[in-house]
């Protein structure tokens, strides 16, 4: 059985404030469980492709910077 009710935040807050202290403690525990749960976002196919692609290593990056430096010198002559 499922019941969905649309109420404003202020109304919800008012109802929570009327709860007995023990029920509020239980509610606070449940809310903290929800907050601590990591978001399980589904990645798009494009994001999966990017994450599984090749990455540049440190040595390759140093080579790239060196080549860029030479190209920039050549371009400004």
Q: What does the model show?
A:
- By secondary structure, the protein is mainly α.
- The protein has a domain at 45-76.
- The protein is built from 4 helices and no strands.
- The longest helix has 19 residues, at 58-76.
- The mean pLDDT is 89.
List strands and helices in order, with pairings.
Blueprint: H1 9-17, H2 21-36, H3 45-52, H4 58-76
Primary descriptors:
single chain, 77 residues, mainly alpha, 68% helix, rod-shaped
Shape: rod-shaped
Instruction: Give the strand tally.
Output: 0
Sheet of most strands:
none
Round the mean pLDDT to the nearest integer and report it.
Answer: 89
Q: What is the N-to-C succession of helices and strands?
A: HHHH
Rounded to an integer in angstroms, the radius of gyration calculated over CA atoms is: 28 Å
Number of helices: 4
* Oligomer class: single chain
> Could you tell me the strand content as a percent range?
under 5%
CA-CA gap between termini? 77 Å
**Helix proportion range:** 55-70%
Structural class: mainly alpha
Task: Outline the low-pLDDT stretches.
Answer: none
What's a concise summary of this model?
The protein has 77 residues and is mostly helical. It has four helices and no strands.
